[in-house]
# Entry
Amino acid sequence: MAKLLAGRRRWLNWPKRLRPANLVALLTTMAGIAILTGALNDSVLQGSDLVMTRALGVVVFTLGLWITGIVPEFFTSLLFLFLSALLSIAPPEVVFSGFQSGALWMIFGGLVIGHSVTQCGLGDRLVNHLLALSAPGYLGVLTTVALSGLVLSFMIPTAIGRVVLMAPIAVHLAKQLGFEPGSKGQAGLVLTAGMSTTLPAFTILPSNVPNLVMSGSAEGLYDISFTYAQYLVLNFPILGVFSLVATIGLNWWFFRGSPKRQTISIEPKPLTGPQLRLSGILVVTILLWVTDSWHGIAPAWVALGAALICALPVVGVIPVSDLPQKINIAPIFFVSGVIGFGAVVFHTGISARAGEYLVAIFHEADLSSNTAIFASLAAIGSVVAVCTTVPTAPGVMTPLAAQLAEATGWPVEWVLMAQVPTWILVPFPYLVPPLLLTMSIGRIPSAQAVRLLLAYFAIGVTLLAPLHFLWARSLGFFL
# Structure
């Protein structure tokens, strides 16, 4: 009887113990099931597309799990792939397009390179150099990591390539400073590495994929070309600098701790044989990444080649048996699911339908103030990004630019530039695959990253967006 009463009390008190993340996941799961069940029973609104409605149910369910992180992110990706294939939401080549993407091999190569850096001791040497350059305290170390990530953004033309170099170094750095795995101090260092190599790079034209998708589509659709300098001057002074400063400040605020600085030997020790070989591999890899427009070899194949060389007998630095036994492949499933998610949303017409709906709202609003037009365009871009992820958003927004230009009276070029802040001001980590990869490498819980990014998003919307609007107007945009 006592056990029965105790069980009854636990049942009555369960809402009080329900965490917000679990509640959000429960609600989105129920919503996804309701949408999906209605689609399977053909009880959808008249005129709706059955496949699109079915896809929407899976999308809502997946987003809820990704945002809350109550299950491992890679497992959510696998669930999405399984449900999409099982329900025939899209052809297999669309659902599993992430496994055909060069990004997958970029990730694999980066994981092997990161493992090699750890095994041969080169990571410890790099960490010691960073510690020697940084100012005392946690804030000083965060600043050094963030500036290193920014410098790489000008050198390496792919965010995933930068992340796979910086994230393992940040993990080593946290260990050297005495922060245990899973601690707040480690989370701050790793997230700083990921954010600083990704977010400011949206203001550097060749450094991130969405930049190139937008500029390439603009040239093909509207015969509009953006120069490197024009794009940088418009976006970097406010958006780029803010994202870097906010990355440092917010990571310090959320995760600050007292590092236990290790003693650093001032006398340089000679590099070992494996360290020399790996240094040579890294130098050649970075040079090939930087000059990819000249030689034409995709960064993914450069990363894959570097990974294979690291495992080659005699010239390599790790045994080939490490590839199947010690490389964590969870990030590969994770990012492949995110890429497939964007492809499915685009293929099923969810993104196009959302874009058309938003354009119609814009027409009805009949906005006359340039400030209101900019705010509305930014809001539309953010909604599209949340629904489709940042890498996919330019593929949705850029073809709509002509319609939005007609509705607002702005030139197409201004409409195109208005979407850039929406790539930088992201409220959730799933929107930017390199951030997800960073979290996977550092084993950072989603809840920590979501809290950080929500604060970053709130500050950006209230402070950064108005400042960027004023800066752009001083350069002749958004007038």
Summary: DSSP finds 24 helices and no strands in the chain. The radius of gyration is 23 Å.
